[in-house]
Amino acid sequence: GTTLGASAAEKGRYFGTAVAGFKLSDNTYTTILNREFNMVTAENEMKMNATEPQQGRFSFSAADQIVNHARSRGMSVRGHTLAWHSQQPGWMESMSGSALRQAMLNHVTQVATYYRGKIHSWDVVNEAFADGSSGARRDSNLQRTGNDWIEAAFRAADAADPNAKLCYNDYNTDNWTHAKTQAVYNMVRDFKSRGVPIDCVGFQSHFNNDSPYVSNYRTTLSSFAALGVDVQITELDIEGASANTYRSVVEDCLAVARCNGITVWGIRDSDSWRSYQNPLLFDGNGQKKAAYNAVLTAL
Ligand code: XIL
Fold it and tell me: ipTM of the assembly?
């Protein structure tokens, strides 16, 4: 193929990007989006603070702009994200206990129901594990409602949209030897053994000098896949955008049958949440970088 999406499709994969809705009026941005990608993630518009700004009053117009842009052009959509400790609406940040648990489950149910049938994969729960060597859950208002909050969210999402793939998504879970990776692995193994409806694990894969790409990444992907879940690279960016590292990531995904696809976290370096790292495939002018050519060749 001559584009990322078409080449990935030839390998039975997708190639996606995060999209910021307010940039859809930028012609350079939208030209690249429509040409290169066949999967889209809303960078912020489907988060809890965007979709339920006031309790029980849902707001889908910003998300719908992205979903409709994608689906009307034959692109699929990753839903990001139904439950997360961050980017909660203010009303939820101040809640706790059973009221918070009920509000979280209602949010999952309402949003997943609204988009039923339109979402390829949902990040049902995002970033629930702690960094460092503890292997523990991250402390958060959601975690304090009880350790079963994650499985409760997955059951609610499954009831609302049984055909979407339901993913657990996190960062710094790329290195197989890290405690956080092992902790997520153990949770997924437990969920599969008890029939909790989980279909996939998302690896954000924000690679930088503090958490670099390591060659056991392929072992991580294949080990999770061996539990009976799909794996997806959901927010890829690489500090400095080494062409060799981008090539390795693509090769690792292609080497694992259950690796469904790769999403980069933005189009141009200037679109990146870490723009100072120049971590993406297109420069600020929308020109293809060496990393782009490495990815296209590896696909
Ligand atoms: C980031 C967005 O890119 C920023 O625009 C926003 O200010 C903060 O969130 N992990 C995630 C993403 O799951 O939702 C985050 O996106 C990046 C880290």
Answer: 0.99
Whether 43 is catalytic is: no
Token representation of residue 283: 């420069």
Could you say which of 45, 52, 127, 235 is catalytic?
235
Report the alpha-carbon distance of residue 29 to residue 26 in Å, rounded. Answer: 5
In angstroms, rounded to a whole number, what is the distance separating the alpha carbons of residues 32 and 250? 20
Between CA 130 and CA 187 the distance in angstroms is 13
- pTM of the predicted structure, to 2 decimals: 0.98
**Other residues' Cβ atoms within 10 Å of the Cβ of residue 235:** 25
The closest alpha carbon to 238, from 204, 217, 207, belongs to: 207
Q: Which two tokens stand for residue 190?
A: 């437990």
Per-residue pLDDT tens over the stretch 51-86:
999 999 999 999 999 999 999 999 999 999 999 999
Tell how far the Cα of 82 is from the centroid of ligand 1, in angstroms: 14
Binding pocket residue ranges, ligand 1, CB within 6 Å: 43-44, 126, 171, 204, 235, 273
- Count of beta carbons in the 10 Å neighbourhood of residue 91: 14
Residue 190, number of CB atoms within 10 A of its CB: 13
